[in-house]
Amino acid sequence: MTTATSRSAVPARAGRKRRDASTEQALLLATDNLLTEKGNIDFSLAEVGARAGLSTALVQYYFGSKHGLLAALLEWSSSRYVSQINGLLAMELSAPEKLQIHLRALVKTYLKTPYIDRLLHHLISSSDDAEAQRISDFYVKRVVEFYRHLIDQGVREGHFRPVDPLHLYFILLGTADHLAARRRLLASALGAADLDMDFVGVFSAALNDMMLNGLRKI
Amino acid sequence: MTTATSRSAVPARAGRKRRDASTEQALLLATDNLLTEKGNIDFSLAEVGARAGLSTALVQYYFGSKHGLLAALLEWSSSRYVSQINGLLAMELSAPEKLQIHLRALVKTYLKTPYIDRLLHHLISSSDDAEAQRISDFYVKRVVEFYRHLIDQGVREGHFRPVDPLHLYFILLGTADHLAARRRLLASALGAADLDMDFVGVFSAALNDMMLNGLRKI
Protein backbone atom coordinates (compact mmCIF):
# COMPACT_ATOMS: atom_id res chain seq x y z
CA MET A 1 0.00 0.00 0.00
CA THR A 2 2.86 2.36 0.78
CA THR A 3 4.84 1.67 -2.36
CA ALA A 4 3.27 2.78 -5.60
CA THR A 5 3.37 0.17 -8.35
CA SER A 6 4.54 1.11 -11.82
CA ARG A 7 0.94 1.06 -13.05
CA SER A 8 -0.16 3.54 -10.42
CA ALA A 9 -2.18 6.43 -11.80
CA VAL A 10 -0.80 8.65 -9.09
CA PRO A 11 2.39 10.41 -10.10
CA ALA A 12 5.32 8.23 -9.03
CA ARG A 13 8.27 9.05 -11.22
CA ALA A 14 10.86 7.07 -9.22
CA GLY A 15 12.13 4.15 -11.24
CA ARG A 16 11.45 5.77 -14.60
CA LYS A 17 14.96 6.03 -16.00
CA ARG A 18 16.69 6.27 -19.36
CA ARG A 19 13.60 7.78 -20.89
CA ASP A 20 13.25 10.44 -23.45
CA ALA A 21 10.74 13.13 -22.49
CA SER A 22 9.91 14.01 -26.09
CA THR A 23 9.13 10.38 -26.95
CA GLU A 24 6.91 10.08 -23.90
CA GLN A 25 5.23 13.35 -24.87
CA ALA A 26 4.66 12.14 -28.46
CA LEU A 27 3.02 8.95 -27.21
CA LEU A 28 0.78 10.84 -24.79
CA LEU A 29 -0.20 13.26 -27.53
CA ALA A 30 -1.06 10.37 -29.87
CA THR A 31 -3.24 8.83 -27.14
CA ASP A 32 -4.85 12.19 -26.48
CA ASN A 33 -5.68 12.49 -30.20
CA LEU A 34 -7.13 8.99 -30.36
CA LEU A 35 -9.30 9.53 -27.30
CA THR A 36 -10.56 12.90 -28.47
CA GLU A 37 -11.30 11.51 -31.94
CA LYS A 38 -12.97 8.26 -30.88
CA GLY A 39 -14.78 9.56 -27.82
CA ASN A 40 -14.02 6.27 -26.07
CA ILE A 41 -11.00 4.22 -24.98
CA ASP A 42 -11.47 1.33 -27.39
CA PHE A 43 -8.06 1.52 -29.02
CA SER A 44 -4.94 -0.64 -28.98
CA LEU A 45 -1.34 0.16 -28.07
CA ALA A 46 -0.55 -0.58 -31.72
CA GLU A 47 -2.85 2.26 -32.78
CA VAL A 48 -1.08 4.61 -30.39
CA GLY A 49 2.31 3.58 -31.79
CA ALA A 50 1.10 4.00 -35.38
CA ARG A 51 -0.36 7.41 -34.62
CA ALA A 52 2.94 8.56 -33.09
CA GLY A 53 5.02 6.92 -35.82
CA LEU A 54 6.66 4.69 -33.20
CA SER A 55 6.64 0.99 -32.40
CA THR A 56 4.15 -0.74 -30.12
CA ALA A 57 7.12 -2.10 -28.14
CA LEU A 58 8.11 1.45 -27.29
CA VAL A 59 4.63 2.19 -25.93
CA GLN A 60 4.97 -0.90 -23.75
CA TYR A 61 8.47 0.10 -22.65
CA TYR A 62 7.34 3.57 -21.59
CA PHE A 63 4.01 2.78 -19.99
CA GLY A 64 4.00 -0.97 -19.30
CA SER A 65 0.39 -1.49 -20.32
CA LYS A 66 -2.67 0.30 -21.61
CA HIS A 67 -3.65 0.95 -18.01
CA GLY A 68 -0.27 2.57 -17.38
CA LEU A 69 -0.60 4.66 -20.52
CA LEU A 70 -4.08 5.87 -19.54
CA ALA A 71 -2.91 6.64 -16.01
CA ALA A 72 -0.03 8.72 -17.41
CA LEU A 73 -2.47 10.48 -19.76
CA LEU A 74 -4.74 11.41 -16.87
CA GLU A 75 -1.76 12.83 -14.99
CA TRP A 76 -0.68 14.78 -18.07
CA SER A 77 -4.11 16.12 -19.00
CA SER A 78 -5.08 17.17 -15.49
CA SER A 79 -1.72 18.68 -14.56
CA ARG A 80 -2.91 22.23 -15.17
CA TYR A 81 -5.63 22.27 -12.58
CA VAL A 82 -4.02 19.82 -10.16
CA SER A 83 -0.85 21.88 -9.86
CA GLN A 84 -2.94 25.04 -9.73
CA ILE A 85 -4.97 23.70 -6.81
CA ASN A 86 -1.74 23.12 -4.89
CA GLY A 87 -0.56 26.62 -5.74
CA LEU A 88 -3.86 28.31 -4.91
CA LEU A 89 -3.99 26.71 -1.47
CA ALA A 90 -0.81 28.57 -0.53
CA MET A 91 -1.62 31.90 -2.20
CA GLU A 92 -2.56 35.13 -0.47
CA LEU A 93 -5.81 35.66 -2.36
CA SER A 94 -9.41 35.97 -1.24
CA ALA A 95 -11.70 32.95 -1.63
CA PRO A 96 -13.68 34.58 -4.51
CA GLU A 97 -10.40 35.30 -6.34
CA LYS A 98 -9.25 31.70 -5.89
CA LEU A 99 -12.60 30.43 -7.14
CA GLN A 100 -12.42 32.57 -10.26
CA ILE A 101 -8.89 31.41 -11.13
CA HIS A 102 -9.81 27.79 -10.47
CA LEU A 103 -12.97 27.88 -12.60
CA ARG A 104 -11.10 29.25 -15.60
CA ALA A 105 -8.46 26.48 -15.30
CA LEU A 106 -11.15 23.83 -14.83
CA VAL A 107 -13.13 24.86 -17.91
CA LYS A 108 -9.94 25.18 -20.00
CA THR A 109 -8.71 21.75 -18.91
CA TYR A 110 -11.99 20.05 -19.74
CA LEU A 111 -12.29 21.75 -23.11
CA LYS A 112 -8.71 20.91 -24.05
CA THR A 113 -9.15 17.28 -23.00
CA PRO A 114 -12.89 16.53 -23.15
CA TYR A 115 -12.34 12.85 -22.28
CA ILE A 116 -10.78 13.60 -18.88
CA ASP A 117 -13.77 12.74 -16.71
CA ARG A 118 -14.50 9.51 -18.57
CA LEU A 119 -10.82 8.57 -18.28
CA LEU A 120 -10.77 9.23 -14.55
CA HIS A 121 -13.80 7.08 -13.93
CA HIS A 122 -12.59 4.33 -16.24
CA LEU A 123 -9.34 4.15 -14.24
CA ILE A 124 -11.15 4.10 -10.91
CA SER A 125 -13.55 1.35 -12.00
CA SER A 126 -10.90 -0.80 -13.73
CA SER A 127 -8.27 -0.70 -10.96
CA ASP A 128 -7.94 -2.91 -7.90
CA ASP A 129 -9.21 -1.42 -4.65
CA ALA A 130 -5.91 0.01 -3.42
CA GLU A 131 -5.11 1.62 -6.78
CA ALA A 132 -8.68 2.94 -7.15
CA GLN A 133 -8.32 4.51 -3.73
CA ARG A 134 -5.02 6.17 -4.71
CA ILE A 135 -6.49 7.60 -7.93
CA SER A 136 -9.56 8.80 -6.10
CA ASP A 137 -7.49 10.41 -3.32
CA PHE A 138 -5.35 12.20 -5.88
CA TYR A 139 -7.99 13.36 -8.38
CA VAL A 140 -11.28 13.45 -6.47
CA LYS A 141 -10.61 13.80 -2.75
CA ARG A 142 -7.96 16.45 -3.37
CA VAL A 143 -10.43 18.56 -5.35
CA VAL A 144 -13.16 18.09 -2.72
CA GLU A 145 -10.65 19.13 -0.03
CA PHE A 146 -9.72 22.18 -2.08
CA TYR A 147 -13.39 23.15 -2.20
CA ARG A 148 -13.62 22.61 1.55
CA HIS A 149 -10.67 24.96 2.05
CA LEU A 150 -12.16 27.52 -0.35
CA ILE A 151 -15.58 27.48 1.33
CA ASP A 152 -14.08 27.64 4.84
CA GLN A 153 -11.90 30.58 3.83
CA GLY A 154 -14.83 32.34 2.16
CA VAL A 155 -17.00 31.84 5.24
CA ARG A 156 -14.22 33.23 7.50
CA GLU A 157 -13.87 36.25 5.19
CA GLY A 158 -17.62 36.83 5.27
CA HIS A 159 -17.98 36.25 1.49
CA PHE A 160 -19.56 32.78 1.42
CA ARG A 161 -22.21 30.85 3.28
CA PRO A 162 -21.28 27.30 4.38
CA VAL A 163 -21.90 24.80 1.58
CA ASP A 164 -21.06 21.08 1.41
CA PRO A 165 -17.85 20.80 -0.69
CA LEU A 166 -19.14 17.53 -2.18
CA HIS A 167 -22.16 19.38 -3.56
CA LEU A 168 -19.88 21.98 -5.10
CA TYR A 169 -17.80 19.13 -6.60
CA PHE A 170 -20.83 17.62 -8.34
CA ILE A 171 -22.01 20.96 -9.67
CA LEU A 172 -18.64 22.18 -10.97
CA LEU A 173 -17.21 18.94 -12.31
CA GLY A 174 -20.57 18.00 -13.80
CA THR A 175 -20.84 21.35 -15.54
CA ALA A 176 -17.25 21.25 -16.87
CA ASP A 177 -17.67 17.70 -18.15
CA HIS A 178 -21.03 18.39 -19.79
CA LEU A 179 -19.70 21.51 -21.46
CA ALA A 180 -16.67 19.63 -22.79
CA ALA A 181 -18.38 16.41 -23.83
CA ARG A 182 -21.55 17.91 -25.32
CA ARG A 183 -20.51 21.28 -26.71
CA ARG A 184 -20.02 20.31 -30.35
CA LEU A 185 -23.03 18.04 -30.50
CA LEU A 186 -25.31 20.62 -28.90
CA ALA A 187 -23.92 23.41 -31.06
CA SER A 188 -25.01 21.67 -34.25
CA ALA A 189 -28.26 20.43 -32.71
CA LEU A 190 -29.22 23.87 -31.45
CA GLY A 191 -27.96 25.54 -34.60
CA ALA A 192 -25.97 27.80 -32.29
CA ALA A 193 -22.94 29.36 -33.85
CA ASP A 194 -22.11 30.84 -30.48
CA LEU A 195 -21.10 27.55 -28.93
CA ASP A 196 -17.61 28.06 -30.30
CA MET A 197 -14.47 28.94 -28.36
CA ASP A 198 -15.84 32.41 -27.63
CA PHE A 199 -18.53 30.63 -25.71
CA VAL A 200 -15.84 29.30 -23.37
CA GLY A 201 -14.79 32.71 -22.13
CA VAL A 202 -18.38 33.88 -21.84
CA PHE A 203 -19.44 30.68 -20.13
CA SER A 204 -16.52 30.70 -17.66
CA ALA A 205 -17.51 34.22 -16.64
CA ALA A 206 -21.18 33.28 -16.32
CA LEU A 207 -20.35 30.18 -14.27
CA ASN A 208 -18.17 32.29 -12.03
CA ASP A 209 -20.97 34.84 -11.50
CA MET A 210 -23.43 32.06 -10.83
CA MET A 211 -21.19 30.33 -8.31
CA LEU A 212 -20.01 33.51 -6.58
CA ASN A 213 -23.59 34.57 -6.27
CA GLY A 214 -24.69 31.05 -5.32
CA LEU A 215 -22.11 30.86 -2.55
CA ARG A 216 -22.69 34.39 -1.34
CA LYS A 217 -23.64 34.95 2.25
CA ILE A 218 -27.18 36.34 2.25
CA MET B 1 -39.96 16.61 -42.72
CA THR B 2 -43.55 17.20 -41.69
CA THR B 3 -44.43 13.55 -41.28
CA ALA B 4 -42.68 11.73 -38.48
CA THR B 5 -41.16 8.41 -39.48
CA SER B 6 -41.75 5.32 -37.37
CA ARG B 7 -38.19 5.54 -36.05
CA SER B 8 -38.61 9.11 -34.87
CA ALA B 9 -37.46 9.68 -31.30
CA VAL B 10 -40.08 12.35 -30.92
CA PRO B 11 -43.37 10.98 -29.63
CA ALA B 12 -45.54 10.07 -32.60
CA ARG B 13 -48.01 7.45 -31.55
CA ALA B 14 -50.15 7.59 -34.69
CA GLY B 15 -49.89 4.33 -36.60
CA ARG B 16 -49.04 2.22 -33.58
CA LYS B 17 -52.01 -0.12 -33.52
CA ARG B 18 -52.90 -3.53 -32.16
CA ARG B 19 -50.27 -3.21 -29.48
CA ASP B 20 -50.31 -4.31 -25.92
CA ALA B 21 -49.20 -1.61 -23.49
CA SER B 22 -47.94 -4.10 -20.91
CA THR B 23 -45.76 -5.90 -23.48
CA GLU B 24 -44.31 -2.59 -24.63
CA GLN B 25 -43.72 -1.65 -20.99
CA ALA B 26 -41.98 -4.98 -20.29
CA LEU B 27 -39.64 -4.49 -23.24
CA LEU B 28 -38.81 -0.92 -22.21
CA LEU B 29 -38.15 -2.06 -18.65
CA ALA B 30 -35.84 -4.84 -19.91
CA THR B 31 -33.93 -2.28 -22.00
CA ASP B 32 -33.79 0.09 -19.04
CA ASN B 33 -32.31 -2.72 -16.90
CA LEU B 34 -29.72 -3.62 -19.54
CA LEU B 35 -28.63 -0.02 -19.98
CA THR B 36 -28.39 0.65 -16.26
CA GLU B 37 -26.46 -2.59 -15.71
CA LYS B 38 -24.04 -2.26 -18.63
CA GLY B 39 -23.52 1.47 -18.49
CA ASN B 40 -23.46 1.52 -22.31
CA ILE B 41 -25.72 0.65 -25.23
CA ASP B 42 -23.75 -2.35 -26.52
CA PHE B 43 -26.55 -4.86 -26.38
CA SER B 44 -28.66 -6.72 -28.94
CA LEU B 45 -32.41 -6.91 -29.46
CA ALA B 46 -32.06 -10.63 -28.61
CA GLU B 47 -30.72 -9.68 -25.16
CA VAL B 48 -33.69 -7.37 -24.63
CA GLY B 49 -36.09 -10.15 -25.64
CA ALA B 50 -34.36 -12.67 -23.37
CA ARG B 51 -34.39 -10.25 -20.43
CA ALA B 52 -38.13 -9.66 -20.90
CA GLY B 53 -38.82 -13.36 -21.52
CA LEU B 54 -40.14 -12.48 -25.00
CA SER B 55 -38.99 -13.14 -28.55
CA THR B 56 -36.63 -10.93 -30.52
CA ALA B 57 -39.28 -10.78 -33.24
CA LEU B 58 -41.63 -9.11 -30.79
CA VAL B 59 -39.03 -6.42 -30.02
CA GLN B 60 -38.76 -5.79 -33.74
CA TYR B 61 -42.52 -5.70 -34.15
CA TYR B 62 -42.94 -3.14 -31.39
CA PHE B 63 -39.99 -0.87 -32.07
CA GLY B 64 -38.83 -1.63 -35.62
CA SER B 65 -35.13 -1.44 -34.80
CA LYS B 66 -32.68 -0.83 -32.00
CA HIS B 67 -32.81 2.86 -32.87
CA GLY B 68 -36.60 2.80 -32.51
CA LEU B 69 -36.33 0.98 -29.20
CA LEU B 70 -33.80 3.48 -27.83
CA ALA B 71 -35.93 6.40 -29.03
CA ALA B 72 -38.97 4.95 -27.23
CA LEU B 73 -36.85 4.41 -24.12
CA LEU B 74 -35.75 8.05 -24.14
CA GLU B 75 -39.36 9.16 -24.42
CA TRP B 76 -40.36 6.82 -21.58
CA SER B 77 -37.50 7.71 -19.23
CA SER B 78 -37.76 11.46 -19.72
CA SER B 79 -41.56 11.64 -19.60
CA ARG B 80 -41.59 12.83 -15.98
CA TYR B 81 -39.70 16.02 -16.54
CA VAL B 82 -40.82 16.64 -20.11
CA SER B 83 -44.51 16.56 -19.16
CA GLN B 84 -43.73 18.56 -16.06
CA ILE B 85 -42.07 21.29 -18.09
CA ASN B 86 -45.23 21.60 -20.19
CA GLY B 87 -47.32 21.75 -17.03
CA LEU B 88 -45.11 24.24 -15.24
CA LEU B 89 -45.19 26.65 -18.16
CA ALA B 90 -48.94 27.04 -17.67
CA MET B 91 -49.01 27.11 -13.88
CA GLU B 92 -49.67 30.10 -11.66
CA LEU B 93 -46.47 29.81 -9.64
CA SER B 94 -43.55 32.15 -9.09
CA ALA B 95 -40.31 31.52 -10.99
CA PRO B 96 -38.45 30.33 -7.85
CA GLU B 97 -41.28 27.88 -7.12
CA LYS B 98 -41.17 26.54 -10.68
CA LEU B 99 -37.40 26.17 -10.46
CA GLN B 100 -37.63 24.19 -7.23
CA ILE B 101 -40.24 21.79 -8.61
CA HIS B 102 -38.29 21.35 -11.84
CA LEU B 103 -34.97 20.64 -10.09
CA ARG B 104 -36.48 17.92 -7.95
CA ALA B 105 -37.98 16.23 -11.04
CA LEU B 106 -34.72 16.60 -12.95
CA VAL B 107 -32.60 15.02 -10.21
CA LYS B 108 -35.15 12.22 -9.68
CA THR B 109 -35.30 11.48 -13.41
CA TYR B 110 -31.53 11.28 -13.77
CA LEU B 111 -31.11 9.10 -10.70
CA LYS B 112 -33.86 6.73 -11.78
CA THR B 113 -32.43 6.46 -15.31
CA PRO B 114 -28.73 7.36 -15.04
CA TYR B 115 -28.13 6.59 -18.74
CA ILE B 116 -30.56 9.25 -19.98
CA ASP B 117 -28.02 11.84 -21.06
CA ARG B 118 -25.83 9.30 -22.84
CA LEU B 119 -28.91 7.92 -24.59
CA LEU B 120 -30.01 11.37 -25.73
CA HIS B 121 -26.62 12.16 -27.21
CA HIS B 122 -26.26 8.76 -28.80
CA LEU B 123 -29.60 9.26 -30.57
CA ILE B 124 -28.66 12.76 -31.73
CA SER B 125 -25.29 11.65 -33.09
CA SER B 126 -26.53 8.44 -34.72
CA SER B 127 -29.58 9.93 -36.48
CA ASP B 128 -29.80 11.63 -39.85
CA ASP B 129 -29.88 15.43 -39.78
CA ALA B 130 -33.66 15.85 -39.83
CA GLU B 131 -34.19 13.26 -37.10
CA ALA B 132 -31.33 14.69 -35.00
CA GLN B 133 -32.99 18.08 -35.28
CA ARG B 134 -36.34 16.68 -34.14
CA ILE B 135 -34.78 14.96 -31.12
CA SER B 136 -32.83 18.05 -30.23
CA ASP B 137 -35.89 20.30 -30.58
CA PHE B 138 -37.90 18.02 -28.34
CA TYR B 139 -35.35 17.22 -25.60
CA VAL B 140 -32.82 20.03 -25.68
CA LYS B 141 -34.37 23.14 -27.22
CA ARG B 142 -37.57 22.65 -25.25
CA VAL B 143 -35.62 22.58 -21.98
CA VAL B 144 -33.55 25.63 -22.98
CA GLU B 145 -36.79 27.45 -23.87
CA PHE B 146 -38.26 26.47 -20.52
CA TYR B 147 -35.23 28.01 -18.82
CA ARG B 148 -35.66 31.15 -20.93
CA HIS B 149 -39.29 31.39 -19.80
CA LEU B 150 -38.28 30.79 -16.16
CA ILE B 151 -35.54 33.41 -16.20
CA ASP B 152 -37.73 35.98 -18.00
CA GLN B 153 -40.52 35.42 -15.49
CA GLY B 154 -38.08 35.65 -12.56
CA VAL B 155 -36.63 38.89 -13.92
CA ARG B 156 -40.13 40.36 -14.35
CA GLU B 157 -41.01 39.36 -10.79
CA GLY B 158 -37.81 40.95 -9.48
CA HIS B 159 -36.44 37.62 -8.20
CA PHE B 160 -33.78 36.84 -10.79
CA ARG B 161 -31.10 38.64 -12.74
CA PRO B 162 -30.95 37.98 -16.50
CA VAL B 163 -28.88 34.87 -17.23
CA ASP B 164 -28.31 33.05 -20.55
CA PRO B 165 -30.67 30.02 -20.55
CA LEU B 166 -28.02 27.99 -22.38
CA HIS B 167 -25.61 28.53 -19.49
CA LEU B 168 -28.26 27.36 -17.06
CA TYR B 169 -28.82 24.31 -19.27
CA PHE B 170 -25.15 23.30 -19.13
CA ILE B 171 -24.97 23.81 -15.36
CA LEU B 172 -28.17 21.96 -14.47
CA LEU B 173 -28.04 19.11 -16.97
CA GLY B 174 -24.31 18.66 -16.35
CA THR B 175 -24.87 18.48 -12.60
CA ALA B 176 -27.79 16.06 -12.87
CA ASP B 177 -25.90 13.78 -15.27
CA HIS B 178 -22.72 13.79 -13.17
CA LEU B 179 -24.65 13.03 -10.03
CA ALA B 180 -26.45 10.14 -11.70
CA ALA B 181 -23.54 8.66 -13.62
CA ARG B 182 -20.84 9.03 -10.96
CA ARG B 183 -22.66 8.71 -7.66
CA ARG B 184 -21.99 5.06 -6.91
CA LEU B 185 -18.41 5.13 -8.13
CA LEU B 186 -17.60 8.26 -6.16
CA ALA B 187 -19.35 6.94 -3.06
CA SER B 188 -17.04 3.94 -2.86
CA ALA B 189 -14.00 5.96 -3.92
CA LEU B 190 -14.61 8.65 -1.33
CA GLY B 191 -15.61 6.12 1.29
CA ALA B 192 -18.74 8.22 1.72
CA ALA B 193 -21.71 6.38 3.12
CA ASP B 194 -23.74 9.52 2.68
CA LEU B 195 -23.83 9.31 -1.11
CA ASP B 196 -26.88 7.06 -0.82
CA MET B 197 -30.47 7.96 -1.65
CA ASP B 198 -30.61 10.34 1.34
CA PHE B 199 -27.96 12.30 -0.49
CA VAL B 200 -30.45 12.88 -3.28
CA GLY B 201 -32.88 14.83 -1.16
CA VAL B 202 -30.11 16.77 0.52
CA PHE B 203 -28.38 17.46 -2.78
CA SER B 204 -31.60 18.56 -4.54
CA ALA B 205 -32.17 21.07 -1.76
CA ALA B 206 -28.56 22.30 -1.89
CA LEU B 207 -28.69 22.63 -5.69
CA ASN B 208 -31.91 24.57 -5.39
CA ASP B 209 -30.37 26.94 -2.80
CA MET B 210 -27.29 27.37 -4.95
CA MET B 211 -29.30 28.12 -8.09
CA LEU B 212 -31.88 30.35 -6.43
CA ASN B 213 -29.05 32.27 -4.85
CA GLY B 214 -27.03 32.17 -8.06
CA LEU B 215 -29.92 33.59 -10.07
CA ARG B 216 -30.90 36.13 -7.46
CA LYS B 217 -31.02 39.75 -8.40
CA ILE B 218 -28.29 41.52 -6.44
What does this structure look like?
Two copies of one chain form a homodimer. Chain A has helices spanning 21-38, 45-52, 56-63, 66-77, 79-90, 95-112, 116-126, 129-157, 165-190, 197-215. Chain A is globular. In chain A, helix 5 (79-90) packs antiparallel against helix 6 (95-112) and helix 6 packs antiparallel against helix 8 (129-157). Chain A is built from ten helices and no strands. Chains A and B meet through helix 7, helix 8, helix 9 and helix 10 of A and helix 7, helix 8, helix 9 and helix 10 of B.
Features:
218 residues, mainly alpha, Arc Repressor Mutant, subunit A, 2 domains, disordered N terminus
- Determine Rg of chain A (CA atoms, Å): 19 Å
CATH class of the largest domain in chain A: Mainly Alpha
Helix content of chain A: over 70%
Q: In CATH terms, what is the fold-level topology of the largest domain in chain A? A: Tetracycline Repressor, domain 2
β-sheet strand percentage of chain A = under 5%
CATH architecture title of the largest domain in chain A: Orthogonal Bundle
Largest interface: A-B, 44 and 45 residues
CATH superfamily of the largest domain in chain A: Tetracycline Repressor, domain 2
Quote the average pLDDT of chain A. Answer: 84
Helix-strand topology string of chain A: HHHHHHHHHH
- As for the number of domains of chain A, it is 2
Q: Determine the N-to-C terminus distance of chain A.
A: 45 Å
* Number of DSSP-assigned strands of chain A: 0
Shape of chain A: globular
Class based on secondary structure composition and strand pairing of chain A: mainly alpha
Q: Assembly type of the shown chains? A: homodimer
How many DSSP H or I helices of chain A? Answer: 10
- Low-pLDDT windows of residues of chain A: 1-7
Query: What profile does the largest beta sheet of chain A have?
Result: none
